Protein 1
Amino acid sequence: MILVSACLAGEECRYDGKHNLVEKVRALVEENQARIVCPEEWGGLSTPREPAEIIGGTGEDVLNGRAKVLTRTGQDVTKEYIQGAEKVLALAKEIDAEYVVLKERSPSCGSSMIYDGSFSHQRIPGEGVTTALLRKEGFKVISEEELADLLF
Ligand code: SF4
């Protein structure tokens, strides 16, 4: 069993109420090979919600208290991001997830790139908060782009 970002399976849980459907991911869920997770909703944030970015570092820095997650208007949602990550980690442990497929570039789910905190679409190398926590605990996290390489 694997875990996948809910938005990749077609759930409308993105900050703007839309999804990021990847048909193969939806098929894995329908075939009961994958469970969906949305760390931002699981951390208590509503949908739609204000976009947020990591300010001053990466997901690992957020976990270590060296960076924060702020919305565009400056609301601190660091606590919600960490709570959501912890819930995803609990499920990953419960089902002993073989690997986890998360949406690239998200401040929660990004696995190799995130936005730089300027809300100007600038990307930097780094991972989101949930990805950082899962990897710290030994889980393999890949993006939807890497999943395509794995399956086809
Ligand atoms: Fe939820 Fe992650 Fe998708 Fe954002 S990228 S909507 S946190 S599953």
Protein 2
Amino acid sequence: MKALGIDIGGSAVKGAPVNTRTGELLAERHRIEVDDKMTPAQMAGVVGELAAHFKWSGPIGVGFPGAIEDSTIWTSANLHPKFVGCDGAKLFGKATECPVVMINDAAAAGVAEMRFGAGRGFLGKALVLTLGTGVGSILAYQGVVVPLELGHFPWKQGKSAEKYVAAAVREAKNLSWEEWGERLREYIAELERLIWPELIIIGGGVSSKHAKFFKFLKPRAKLLPAEFFNNAGIVGAALWAVEKK
Ligand code: BGC
């Protein structure tokens, strides 16, 4: 079984064909730079280009950084506002001429990590956070992944927490690992107070640098970096393409 997994983000759209039985990439991933001002039509063009790169015909899963209900995109905090209300399966299906299934980007990462990565075999309560342009979040329990929007937890002055703790904020504000780690520690402590996860998995590109900031986080739960690092979104979107009911 194979499917094309595509991960849409604010700086790039990435994808690769995936063996959905093992989670392995079947070809080197392809990355196309984008900017966060692209309209849905422009982004669909990029997704079409990505599928064409792999001469793909078959199921496609697309991870998108927003709240997704079936295939409708309901929020677009870090991409063009015109995505709100779009039917992603139709938009990207037309561009690729393939059947497309939509999933929230963090949910895709969560599905991959819980199945084949850092959370494999863990059936307790796990919180997966992806740190990138925004903060993605899911809870997994007994193997079921539930997409959340904890990046928009009201934080200082009522702003979305992701404006304070996302990996992009560390870069934009030139924070040291310790300064950023301290912000993250506070945020995770608050989430722990509400959710009581037993395991916390940190994903997103920055998870490959976990040695630099995990020491500042000090959660109650066991803390692990994502095993797929930045490929979790691609792998999980591909799994979703063949598994969504
Ligand atoms: C979006 C989420 C997304 C996260 C990570 C947030 O701004 O609202 O849906 O999972 O960013 O990309």
